TrEMBL record:
The keyword Endoplasmic reticulum does not apply. Residues 29-122 form the Core-binding (CB) domain. It comes from the Bacteria. Signal peptide: none annotated. Belongs to the 'phage' integrase family. GO terms for biological process: DNA integration; DNA recombination. SUPFAM superfamilies: DNA breaking-rejoining enzymes. Residues 170-367 form the Tyr recombinase domain. Pfam families: Phage_int_SAM_1, Phage_integrase. GO terms for molecular function: DNA binding. Keywords: DNA integration, DNA recombination, DNA-binding. This is Integrase domain-containing protein.
Length: 377
């Protein structure tokens, strides 16, 4: 079966090192040339896809499709709507490992990625036409409007892959401070710090994993410490503002617990990244998936259904409520635009979802960022 690999720092396509570029190999360990050519284009040429996380997402979708091609004996450039529809329907069936089908958002994401690959193949002359049709659909009225929706001449209609399935996205669900406290109760110091960084700044698990010791060098007497992070979704740098007491406790973790891990790893001559802020018990950097798995396990042990991303939703809802209150005294402040900057969203419509959260979720209405910090720190 096909295999998915990622480049190491030794990969130098244009003379400079590029890590984490995905590569697809067939059952005979040969490069799948059309797939690899597109993935290289995505990673090295396209200006809008600078994040290795985006490369991985695209690669995993194409990898799953290529496994389906091999399992059914289909040629990648001879498939049509029937084969793609069969692939979609297979994803809609319950899976053996979980007993549930894939989420419709996941299915649509894979189909859109496959669509991007085939459109690129047509544009580069590898195929004559894409193996699916597009249709015009109306955007859901529950979907947040874009910033310039009032000058949109399309009437709220877009062209979409006809194979995608109807999907009604759910509103983000913030966690109550009490639920977060229950999850944190049995956590070791490192894991509690990770949760506090997430819930007080809104950073994602990949951004937590990207924190380094250098991020703690900021000093001052202000209650919030500005920290610039570069390992973000989409590769866009932004400033986060952890509370000063949290930064102080994190520095204590670096001096004490982390220092022991670093010395132990050095004694064993283990490979390690000395810059990574949060380390495993072996002295290795915490990876994003490990961060997510750590939180999910702790939540399950506390009887709470939640993922790590719920901490970002909690911060966003609380911060929006706080900014709305601040705007009463400062009319020049736009709460939604300020929140967009803090969260690092490229599209204001993504941030606008939280307006509905604070309108419909009573716990979010009652919890502002001040209340949240006081309850957790």
């Amino acid at each position: 079966m096909a295999q998915l690999l990622f480049s190491t720092p030794a990969f130098r396509p244009d003379g400079s090192s590029v890590e984490n570029v995905p590569m697809l190999l067939d059952a005979r360990m040969r490069l799948v040339e059309p797939a690899c050519a597109w993935l290289m284009h995505v990673a090295l040429v396209r200006g809008r896809t600078r994040s290795p996380q985006t490369w991985r997402t695209y690669a995993e979708a194409l990898y799953d499709w290529w496994q389906t091609l091999e399992a059914n004996g289909w040629a990648w450039d001879e498939v049509g709507p029937g084969e793609l529809a069969a692939y979609r329907d297979q994803m809609l069936r319950p899976r053996g490992d979980s007993g549930r089908p894939l989420a419709r958002s996941t299915i649509n994401g894979r189909l859109r990625t496959i669509g991007r690959f085939y459109r690129w193949s047509v544009a580069t002359g590898l195929m004559k036409q894409v193996p699916f049709a597009s249709q015009e659909i109306a955007l859901s009225r529950s979907r947040p409007q874009a910033f310039l929706a009032h000058v949109d001449a399309t009437g709220g209609r877009i062209r979409a892959n006809e194979l995608t399935v109807r999907h009604m996205p759910m509103l983000p669900r913030p966690l109550a401070p009490e639920a977060i406290r229950r999850i944190m109760a049995a956590m070791p110091a490192r894991d509690r710090l990770i949760v506090e960084w997430a819930v007080t700044t809104g950073i994602r698990r990949m951004e937590v994993a990207g924190l380094t010791v250098r991020h703690l060098k900021g000093a001052g007497s202000e209650p919030m410490v500005p920290v610039q992070i570069d390992e973000t979704k989409g590769g866009r740098s932004r400033i986060i503002y952890p509370p000063a007491p949290l930064v102080d406790r994190t520095r204590a973790y670096v001096r004490e617990e982390r220092a022991v891990l670093v010395r132990r790893a050095a004694t064993k001559r283990a490979d390690r990244d000395p810059e990574a802020l949060f380390l495993t018990c072996r002295g290795q950097p915490m990876k994003p998936r490990r961060v997510g798995a750590m939180f999910t396990a702790a939540a399950e042990a506390a009887g709470v259904t939640a993922t790590f991303h719920a901490l970002r939703h909690t911060f966003a809802a609380a911060m929006l409520r706080f900014l709305q209150r601040e705007a009463r005294a400062n009319p020049e402040l736009n709460p939604l635009l300020a929140l967009q900057v803090l969260l690092g969203h490229a599209d204001l419509a993504t941030t606008a979802v939280y307006l509905r959260v604070v309108e419909t979720d009573l716990s979010a209405i009652e919890t502002s960022v001040d209340d949240l910090y006081a309850a957790l720190l």
